[in-house]
Design goal:
The chain is an alpha/beta fold. It has a single domain, classed as Vaccinia Virus protein VP39 (Rossmann fold), CATH 3.40.50.150. About 35% of the residues lie in helices and about 20% in strands. It contains nine helices and seven strands. The protein has a seven-stranded mixed sheet with strand order 3-2-1-4-5-7-6, sandwiched between helices. The longest helix has 15 residues. It is elongated, with a radius of gyration of 23 Å.
Length: about 300
């Protein structure tokens, strides 16, 4: 097995989330994700007796699960130092659940900061009963693209080099492949692009701190960003990403993942050669054999 790359300092991730939740969490993205989760689950007409919310920083997702008809037990699992109100202390990378013990697992804006996402998805799939559902939302690759560009340009100009300041969030196509590798059936991924506007880039930085999303990369530079470099980055941001009214844009890419634990009742792909109808008939065209030429 290849060794997992320790991209994130997980202790620092938890410490910054803890600081954010105690100081007044900026929950506008989480509330939006929870509303979307409610809509997505509402379209599924089946019960999920035992449901788990994994790692969500607030009670936004567990409240959705508790309101669902057909859910007898809703568990909120999160690190104790992040969400002390959670019903179970657990780390997203070490799930304390028996195989095939859950009917539903959800997670909102938590899994983008785990080091072993493939392993976490495998654990989630194993914890699900056959025909159980996983549905999660995490931040994707276009998140904070404006801030990333401004910081890179400012550091290049003022410091003669760049250091990692914004996490390299995952790409939707890669995440779809991870669902398949983890053994999920019927995997689906989709994106919701969210643009938030601010009066000044400093307001964005304040919100990132209040969401616990400040830099927790292991490869981060340990010295603080110089004031002159920061001021230049803010200038670049305001010049490049302001709307006509002067407000600046910040992009957040919310990627939704869903997949089912395999079950014999699920729709299966046809075996090669087992089709009972010809594509040419469906398209009302003439099928040409090898070597034939289309003629008038």
């Amino acid at each position: 097995m290849p060794e997992t790359v320790e991209l994130f300092d997980r202790r620092l991730v938890r410490a910054r989330l803890q600081r954010a939740t105690r100081a007044g969490f900026a929950d506008f993205l989480l509330r939006r994700a929870a509303e979307d989760l409610d809509d997505r689950l509402g379209a599924i007409t089946r019960p999920f007796p035992v449901a788990l919310d994994l790692g969500t920083a607030t009670d936004a997702a567990i409240d959705v699960l508790r309101r669902r008809a057909g859910t007898d037990r809703a568990i909120w699992a999160a690190p104790a130092d992040v969400s002390p109100q959670a019903s179970l202390v657990a780390d997203e990378e070490r799930l304390p659940f028996a195989e095939q013990s859950l009917n539903l697992v959800t997670s909102l804006l938590a899994l983008q900061s785990v080091n072993d996402l493939p392993g976490t998805l495998v654990q989630i799939r194993r914890s699900l009963k056959p025909d159980g559902l996983f549905i999660g939302c995490l931040l994707g690759g276009a998140t904070l693209k404006e801030l990333r560009q401004a910081l890179v340009q400012a550091e290049s100009e003022r410091d003669g080099g760049v250091s990692p300041r914004v996490a390299p969030f995952a790409d939707m196509r890669d995440l779809g492949g991870l669902l398949q590798r983890a053994g999920f059936a019927l995997p689906v991924t989709d994106i919701e692009a969210v643009t938030v506007r601010y009066g000044h880039p400093l307001s964005l930085l304040a919100d990132l701190r209040a969401m616990g999303l400040t830099n927790a990369l292991r490869a981060r530079r340990r010295t603080p960003l110089r004031r002159a470099t920061l001021m230049r980055a803010l200038e670049i941001y305001a010049a490049a990403f302001a709307d006509p009214d002067g407000k600046v844009r910040a992009s957040f890419e919310m990627i939704w993942l869903s997949g089912w634990a395999p079950h014999e009742s699920q729709q299966q792909p046809l075996r090669p050669g087992s089709a009972k109808a010809r594509l040419a008939d469906a398209l009302k065209t003439v099928e040409l054999k090898a070597g034939d030429k289309a003629g008038g």
